[in-house]
Amino acid sequence: MEKQHIDATFCENCQSEILVNNNFCRVCGQAQNLKEVSFHANKKQNLQQIALFFAIEIIVCISALLIENHTIAISLFFDFVMAITAILFFCNNWSENKFILKWPNFSIKKVVGLVVVTVIVSYIVQFLVGHLNRFIFNEDYSFYFTYAFHKYGNYIMVLSVALLPALFEELAYRGFLMQRLLNIVDEKEAIYITSILFFFIHFSMISFFWMLPFGLLLAYVRIKTNTLWYGVIMHFFFNLTACFVEIYDFSNLGF
Amino acid sequence: MENQQLNLCACCANTFAQNDSYCISCGYPLQGTNEQQENHIANRAVKEIDLIDLNKKVETACNSLYWIAGIIGVSSIIGYFTLTDEDDVLIFLITTVIMVGAFLALAVWSKTKPTTALISGLSLYVIIQLLNLIADPSSIIRGIIFKIIIIVYLIKGVMAVLEAEKIKKELNIK
């Protein structure tokens, strides 16, 4: 009888020679998936961290909703709170998370390509969202008024709408949350969950047709490139385009 | 090996070689004492029963996603007839359709990706309840027992998925 060739390996416990497809060592009885078992043992703790993180995010975002008159100071205050939350959670497991802050295989071509695509997509989305809001809600939602009457309003708007969220939402979702989730589920599910939670936290049902795909793309790029920075740049340019559309619209109206 | 005897493990019925001390498929102590062998079988049986329990919990949690979709649907139909002229029918309908659709989609998805669907369903349900609370503080009281039951089932479901995977790994079932 000819036997199929199967690679040999050594038992994790007693170093006897066994086959790679053996679940248990035939000499000492040790299960050969110790790493997987210990990986699964830490899941609950990771899940608790995620639950705490998301609960804080929800509380902060809901408190932001409760305030009716958004001033520049209030916007910046919430940006600041989100930033602190993201940094604290991210740094809690600093040694495990720090590698995604590096930028291996920096490619200017990739950056330019992604930025161009992001700007085009963002412009189309702004256009569609504007029409949808007018059609369904009969209103023009704009964050421009918060900043319009300040001397450096435009600069503060870019800071508060584009730069800070790009940095700290990425750090929180594609950074902390993704790293925790990778300890619980596989890459595919981690991509799905981060994008879905990222979409939920914006409290905007109408935006599912672009926010979900955008979240998926950011998460996918983060997994494929093993760095946070492509996501940060894309997120920044996405929001920046929204800012420019607002500024342009309102300058046409004579503000 | 001409006179090969068919040796079957007493625990998992896998074939084993004559000189093996443990079953390579389930870790059964082939050369162990009676006590060791009985312990091994008992331990595995306990874990397998746990696994069945956990899978039931996951199933209940997945079904509660259907329940959420149904309840939102029914309460919206009731709500539809109590709408006043000032309320915007279009916004009401779009909101309802999206929410019912979202929970139905999650419920279907939970059959293949239970972790993702249950975590998403739980988050969405909690967020919806909190947003309702802001819009109308009295809304939290309505059906509070039902809401708590749903949330408990979902949380238990998420925990059970993770626990079930852990036990599968301990049993070394692929």
UniProtKB/TrEMBL annotation, chain A:
Judging by the UniProt lineage, the source's domain of life is Bacteria
| BP GO terms, sorted | CAAX-box protein maturation; proteolysis
Which ranges does the record mark as transmembrane? Answer: 50-67, 73-91, 111-132, 152-169, 190-221, 227-248
Keyword field contains Hydrolase: yes
Q: Which InterPro entries match?
A: Rce1/LyrA-like_dom
Q: Name one GO molecular function term.
A: endopeptidase activity
According to the entry, every stretch annotated as the CAAX prenyl protease 2/Lysostaphin resistance protein A-like domain falls at: 155-240
Keyword field: Hydrolase, Membrane, Metalloprotease, Protease, Transmembrane, Transmembrane helix
| Protein's UniProt name | CPBP family intramembrane metalloprotease
Automatic annotation (TrEMBL), chain B:
Query: What keywords appear on the UniProt entry?
Result: Membrane, Transmembrane, Transmembrane helix
Membrane among the record's keywords?
yes
| Stretches that traverse the bilayer | 65-83, 89-109, 116-134, 140-162
Write the protein's name: Zinc ribbon domain-containing protein
**Which species?**
Pedobacter polaris
